[in-house]
């Protein structure tokens, strides 16, 4: 079988605003479709998405995790020294970084994260009516994450640069070009922020440079590694905690369950990013002609894997459009990817979410919507821009 054409632009305003009808068409048409506008394949079913990320020998990352082929002239983004390499080199690099970001290292940050979350939530409760994104998610993540990484960057810079990065993973469309222009005033400061001389002592960025000195990372890659952590660790986490807050404000039974059993906060977060996945789509490239889901694929061709679609595939999930933190099998969801490139920062994101949800369950009796949430349209990231909430103190 060859991959049938799906002539819908996944990166149009209409689809980005509400991607779920497109995801259904993508899943129902075939296990693999062709997106003729972009000359690439796409998968939306869980089974094929999982197979794609689990076989780096057939579906490589070294041509770029985005739509742009970073090995050809004209690529519109710079490569990552961790996400855009393949085994066996990736295995060695990943091992060195996993040592720096081990679970025991991350656990040491718990107290500081919890204290910061308490302060952010105390202020929000005092305000009563807040924007959950600006007043809680951005305020918290932009305070704790840059600090543990050891970089000093302003919140405005993060948002402008984040939009540019996640747009650039998709096509070089008007949205990408506008976000590049928007990020222009911040680029010099951004580039400077991940140089060795800018690292704040005690952050894990410093250790990345030391690992390069020790020969554990490829020579000359430490700055790009710090940039990769900045790229991967901020917008995704703000988005994911934002979706958890949105669902908990809209589902009082789920909120009550979390308040009575706060140890469910990991599941509350995991389910939030299954239900609305921050990283919506990423890419691999076929090395040679191959087969996926019974479909023949050409060599050297990009394959988009739509995480947001796979995480709502009814073949895998019962009642997939419903938010339910008691759902079984959440650890197999794809919001953090899968296979060798599965998110290396997921424990950090989970600790951040635990800290915020923990502080909220202690200090807030009831949380309700104070208006409609607004999404920000970014090619490959699903994220809220505004989340009006009313908080009732416990
Ligand atoms: C809710 C929050 C997060 C989400 C949804 C998320 C999502 C993802 C996904 C889908 C991948 C796989 C990429 C691929 O398939 O090519 C990934 C990889 C990665 N993430 Fe995350 N991420 C999150 C938080 C973080 C944090 C906090 C950090 C920073 C420490 C981080 C750093 C990275 C890095 C460096 C990789 C590349 C790993 C590799 O290629 O081996 N992410 N992330």
TrEMBL record:
InterPro entries recorded: Cyt_P450, Cyt_P450_CS, Cyt_P450_sf
Alphabetical list of SUPFAM superfamilies matching this protein: Cytochrome P450
Gene3D superfamilies hit by this protein: Cytochrome P450 (1.10.630.10)
Superkingdom classification of source: Bacteria
Pfam families linked to this entry: p450
Cofactor (UniProt): heme
Positions in coiled-coil regions: none
Stored PROSITE patterns: CYTOCHROME_P450 (PS00086)
Keywords annotated in UniProt: Heme, Iron, Metal-binding, Monooxygenase, Oxidoreductase
PANTHER family: CYTOCHROME P450 YJIB-RELATED (PTHR46696:SF1), P450, PUTATIVE (EUROFUNG)-RELATED (PTHR46696)
Family under the similarity heading: Belongs to the cytochrome P450 family.
Listed name of the protein: Cytochrome P450
Organism from which the protein derives: Steroidobacter flavus
